[in-house]
Amino acid sequence: MKKLIILLLIIYALFIGCSNNTTKPKTFKVGDLVGRWENNANNSDYFLITSEGYMKIGSNQIKINNWYQWEEVTEVKLTAQMTNDHFITFYFDSVSSCTLSSTGTSEKIYFTKK
């Protein structure tokens, strides 16, 4: 009986020591980004993402390339060309958090999905 207990303890120790403790990155579906996104500092600044794969910023409507609504991702980076030399980059690291950066400035603007 004593040998059986020792054997079980060794197997248990091996099981714990060999278990996979790595955490997988959190994923979300691209389609979960659909909705209204508001500036954290000023709720009057916002943009919309539609289920058809368009981003609406003010009067501009921009088609999102490679819009795969059901694709599972860990992040999404979208770049919109507003004028010939002005680009806006939207970086989504979750379904509720977006960081916006713009050419010509190092300032970042943070948006939250409402």
Question: What order do the helices and strands come in, and which of them pair?
Answer:
Elements: H1 2-18, E1 28-29, E2 35-39, E3 46-49, E4 54-57, E5 60-63, E6 72-73, E7 76-83, E8 86-92, E9 97-102, E10 108-113
Antiparallel strand pairs: 1-6, 2-3, 2-10, 3-4, 4-5, 7-8, 8-9, 9-10
Number of strands: 10
Class from helix and strand fractions: mainly beta
Shape: globular
**Cα Rg:** 23 Å
- The stretches of 5 or more residues where confidence is low (pLDDT under 50) are none
Report strand %.
35-45%
Strand numbers in spatial order across the main sheet: 5-4-3-2-10-9-8-7
Which bin fits the share of residues in helices? 10-25%
Quote the distance from N terminus to C terminus.
62 Å
Q: Could you state the order of secondary-structure elements as H and E? A: HEEEEEEEEEE
Number of helices: 1
What composes the largest sheet? 8 strands, antiparallel
Mean pLDDT: 82
Description:
The structure is a single chain. The protein is mainly β. The protein is built from 1 helix and 10 strands, in the order H-E-E-E-E-E-E-E-E-E-E. The chain has one helix spanning 2-18, and strands at 28-29, 35-39, 46-49, 54-57, 60-63, 72-73, 76-83, 86-92, 97-102, 108-113. The longest helix has 17 residues, at 2-18. The chain is globular, with a radius of gyration of 23 Å. The N and C termini lie far apart (62 Å).
Keywords summarizing the entry:
single chain; 114 residues; mainly beta; 8-stranded antiparallel β-sheet; two-stranded antiparallel ribbon; 1 helix; globular
Please sum up the structure shown:
This protein is mainly beta and 114 residues long.
